[in-house]
Automatic annotation (TrEMBL):
<protein>
    <recommendedName>
        <fullName>Aminopeptidase</fullName>
    </recommendedName>
</protein>
<dbReference type="GO" id="GO:0009636">
    <property type="term" value="P:response to toxic substance"/>
</dbReference>
<feature type="active site">
    <location>
        <position position="364"/>
    </location>
</feature>
<dbReference type="InterPro" id="IPR025660">
    <property type="entry name" value="Pept_his_AS"/>
</dbReference>
<dbReference type="InterPro" id="IPR000169">
    <property type="entry name" value="Pept_cys_AS"/>
</dbReference>
<dbReference type="InterPro" id="IPR004134">
    <property type="entry name" value="Peptidase_C1B"/>
</dbReference>
<keyword id="KW-0378">Hydrolase</keyword>
<dbReference type="GO" id="GO:0006508">
    <property type="term" value="P:proteolysis"/>
</dbReference>
<dbReference type="GO" id="GO:0070005">
    <property type="term" value="F:cysteine-type aminopeptidase activity"/>
</dbReference>
<dbReference type="InterPro" id="IPR038765">
    <property type="entry name" value="Papain-like_cys_pep_sf"/>
</dbReference>
<dbReference type="Pfam" id="PF03051">
    <property type="entry name" value="Peptidase_C1_2"/>
</dbReference>
<keyword id="KW-0788">Thiol protease</keyword>
<dbReference type="GO" id="GO:0005737">
    <property type="term" value="C:cytoplasm"/>
</dbReference>
<keyword id="KW-0645">Protease</keyword>
<dbReference type="GO" id="GO:0043418">
    <property type="term" value="P:homocysteine catabolic process"/>
</dbReference>
<feature type="active site">
    <location>
        <position position="385"/>
    </location>
</feature>
<comment type="similarity">
    <text>Belongs to the peptidase C1 family.</text>
</comment>
Length: 444
């Protein structure tokens, strides 16, 4: 039986607070300064100095502005680092708007296919409700960007620059989601009325044509052929004519994207280590590359990232950036804020409990560009963000190793760095399918 709060309980709480000699001082501090400012421990400023034993020179940071394309910026940043080294192009950027266009277009089709696959379920079912809550948005996963590049290639930012709607995406997302929900009504009705496969295909084709028009007006229409004209860091002039987006990727990046795989650390009971996982309804390109995660211990997770950094290559990673971090200073450290001491309350939860109970999930992707090793062990990590140069140290953050333990969930590494047993699992094991709302799909 439910129990109400009694007057006696409240009186006891008030008496205990009145007898606390520090209560009034703390109340004044917290009410005037806020919880985080009062709980901050500035010793972290000293401990998180941006000096690293391994420090890759990756140039100026990019700026995703008012959009949720962190995963895309971070992935393209790892590729531009490689390109910049090869062709002496510091401060060069790949077009995030180009991949954004095709991602949103493919997500529309992916949504339609999921609507048709669940059309026999009521709108009250959890899967249908999940689909309709956010038909598409800015977020995504490494594998999803690979699917876009494998199908459409990439281009320099100069060829397809940012627009108002790519940098400030709320209007486009709201408009497109309204359109997709309306389309879902039509598709579900066609299925309910036993429409033919040809009629459904024709309706979907009309919807996609409209989606393409909306995206072209908002983001600009993608190019199919272009000339790449630039001066390198030595001021030498270059022009490469008649490139396609796919030939540009092959020539200037040249990665075999299948070599780069997603590694996660999710210590929950439903995801045993050394096994692979995917997430239902998570993707963009129908028939393209699927999301696949290999779950490993935190020790293996960090060693893989270190090996790739030691080889001179930056590392895409996913984390819960808002937890125990100072955005303006660019410090990510669980020892920075001490709400437990401030309130005399135990706030501690294990990493697994944070995931299982909705306290934490992947919310942001960035790039590891350095690490400080002391006696072979990491103490702090250099992080390239995509929030412009006005935060952190010209846009770079410092992450303590303890913060990585608590709030980092995913890295992408070249599978050459995997030990043989893990590589075999990653390459051959059929992944366990997780629910659409699993936190390992949260970046999307």
């Amino acid at each position: 039986m439910s129990k109400e709060i009694t007057a006696a309980q409240t009186a006891a709480y008030q008496k205990e607070l009145a007898n606390d000699t520090n209560a009034q001082v703390l109340e004044r501090a917290v009410s005037h300064q806020g919880i985080l400012a009062t709980a901050a421990d500035f010793a972290s400023d000293r401990d998180m100095t941006p000096v690293f034993s391994i420090d890759l020179d990756t140039g100026k940071v990019a700026n995703q502005k008012q959009s949720g394309r962190c995963w895309m910026f971070a992935a393209l940043n790892t590729m531009r680092h490689h390109l910049a080294d090869l062709f002496k192009l510091s401060d060069f950027e790949l077009s995030q708007n180009y991949t954004n266009f095709w991602d949103k277009f493919e997500k529309a089709n992916y949504f339609y296919e999921n609507v048709l696959a669940t059309a026999d379920q009521p709108t009250s079912s959890r899967k249908v409700a999940f689909l309709m809550a956010t038909p598409q948005q800015d977020g995504g996963q490494w594998d999803m960007l690979c699917a876009i590049i494998e199908k459409y290639g990439i281009v320099p930012k100069s060829v397809m620059p940012e627009t108002y709607n790519s940098s400030k995406s709320s209007e486009l997302n709201k408009t497109l989601n309204l359109k997709l929900r309306k389309d879902a009504v039509v598709l579900r009705k066609l299925v309910a009325d036993n429409a033919s496969a040809d009629d459904i295909a024709a309706a979907k084709d009309k919807m996609l044509k409209e989606d393409y028009r909306i995206l072209s007006f908002a983001l600009g229409e993608p190019v199919s052929e272009f000339d790449f004209e630039y001066r390198d860091d030595d001021k030498n002039y270059h022009i490469d004519k008649g490139l396609t987006p796919k030939s540009f990727f092959d020539k200037y990046v040249g990665w075999n994207l299948s070599d780069y795989v997603s590694i996660i650390n999710a210590p929950t009971a439903d995801k045993p280590y050394n096994h692979t996982y995917t997430v239902e309804m998570l993707g963009n390109v129908v028939g393209g590359r699927s999301v696949k995660h290999l779950n490993v211990s935190m020790a293996d997770f960090k060693q893989l990232a270190i090996k790739q950094l030691q080889a001179g290559q930056s590392v895409w990673f996913g984390c819960d950036v808002g937890q125990e971090s100072d955005r303006q200073k660019g410090i990510m450290d669980p020892n920075y804020y001490h709400q437990d001491d401030l309130f005399n309350v135990d706030f501690d939860l294990s990493k697994a409990d944070k995931l299982d109970y909705g306290e934490s999930m992947m919310t942001h992707a960035m790039v590891l560009t350095g690490v400080d090793l002391v006696d072979g062990q990491p103490t702090k990590w250099k992080v390239e963000n995509s929030w412009g140069e006005k935060v952190g140290t010209k846009g770079y953050f410092v992450m303590s190793d303890a913060w990585m333990d608590k709030y980092c969930y995913q890295v992408v590494v070249n599978k050459q760095f995997l030990p043989d047993d893990l590589r075999k699992i990653q390459e051959t094991e059929e992944p366990t399918v997780l629910a659409p709302w699993d936190p390992m799909g949260a970046l999307a």
